[in-house]
Amino acid sequence: MKRRDFLQNVPVALMATSLATPFALDSTTGLERSIPINHSVARWCLSQYKLDELLPRLKDIGIHSIDLVGPQDYQTLKKYDMHCSMCEGAAISLTEGFNDPQYHDELVKRYTEAIPRVADAGFTNLICFSGNRRGMDDLVGLENCAIGLERILPLAEKYGVVIQMELFNAQDHPDYMCDSSLWGISLCRRLGTPHFKLLYDIYHMQIQEGDIIHQITEYHEYFGHYHTAGVPGRNEIGADQELYYPAIMRAIAKTGFTGYVAQEFIPTNKDPFVSIAEAIGICEGSRLPQ
Predict the structure, then answer these.
(1) Where are the domains of the chain?
(2) What is the DSSP letter of 50?
(3) From CA 169, how far away is CA 203, in angstroms rounded?
């Protein structure tokens, strides 16, 4: 059947149903009023500001959470009633991780100390890393990660903390082992606990493998946190990059995700808070990328 004949024979009501969206539309702009996402911002992207200066400005634009802050700053977060959506401070480095048994004892010590501190501060997520391959087979590295992580997961479960391993791309982080969502998902399945998940970095995974919305829709149960940035360049998520974040955020929201999405781009605007506010609007569906 030719496309024209098909369209002429499809009932109008059926076409309308297929185009329907579960999100309310603004009658003036035609854009969605809100995509229900909890927003955060990565600390390192705004490292030029002290926390005492940064946190009030984030709250002024409606952001009440920050990513990648360590225990030395928990009291400052409490001072401003700011949540930490992804804690750091227990890892050795990005390249020295759970895939290498020589680091297990040190990592277990660090995470055993960090997990109760995260919980006592009222936070939930704590980041970890696979480490680099250095010639190691990926299946061997996966099993090594599982052996090391199994030593800390009972404590994480006791305190209600979720250990989250971040996915990176091989271009920015050559040799990093957890550079495939399916490798990370295999590790999640091997461990079999809701207290271990993946930090799905949309920027990294677009560069590494693409197919972002399908991956989120198909494997969302293994993703506990999301990061954003524009591709290419890791800058703002506007119209001059290749990802369409309103659609990605809709896909995340449709999975029932109740965690946080953190903006992790490097602002090019002289006022980075303008860029962040625009990014939140794009992710909420209240504005189109400019």
Answers:
(1) 24-284
(2) -
(3) 9
